[in-house]
Amino acid sequence: MNIFRLAGDMTHLMSVIVLLLKIHTIKSCAGISLKTQELYALVFATRYLDIFTDFISLYNTIMKLIFLASSFSIVWYMRQHKIVRRSYDKDQDTFRHLFLILPCLLLALFINEKFTFKEVMWTFSLFLEAVAILPQLVLLQRTRNIDNLTGQYVFLLGAYRALYILNWIYRYFTEPHYVHWITWISGLVQTLLYADFFYYYFNSWKNNVKLQLPA
Amino acid sequence: DTETEPHDEL
């Protein structure tokens, strides 16, 4: 474990906590893409298949449980909770899951470190995580402006992966044979997808104006 | 062949 990875995990944890708190306290999910939340639940479900077979550390297991519980409870809130679900904008949140899931699955079948079910699922979860934010970014473009909490959520989500890139660089230089091209490239693509959002988020923060995304 | 070491990152 290094400081970059710990900071990344904490930032990731903060992003889901911010989102859960927003939904739980104001009982609204306005501006949140259910599609993205469902994709994240799938990312964690396929990434953490080894939660009961490979014990890495207490920290690792606890964090996996937190991410699984939080992502599935966010989906539950948005689909089942009688008050929250009313604020879900299903007419605007129309991104098709399959357009992201199928290509990631096909890619994972061809590009993986080992052709085993767990490894292919793990690789699939990496590719899917890289693009899972797209429905949310599309929804933000459509609704044109976003409230602070959603902005913070997307920002933290992007920042966590950027910190992971620092972690991979650190590990590459400190651990011999630590080479994971698949992870690195998908993590880089994921962070680049946030780049334009970061640009608008930073400008709105600097000029102290409400975050407006161009149409 | 070596069993791929478990992924230690979240």
Automatic annotation (TrEMBL), chain A:
The protein's matches in Pfam families, at most eight in alphabetical order, are given as: ER_lumen_recept
Transmembrane regions: 55-77, 98-115, 121-140, 152-170, 182-202
- Topology with regard to the membrane? Multi-pass membrane protein
In terms of one coarse class, where is the protein primarily found?
A: endoplasmic reticulum
Record carries keyword Protein transport: yes
Output the superkingdom of the source species.
Eukaryota
What family is this protein classified in? Answer: Belongs to the ERD2 family.
- What name goes with this protein? ER lumen protein-retaining receptor
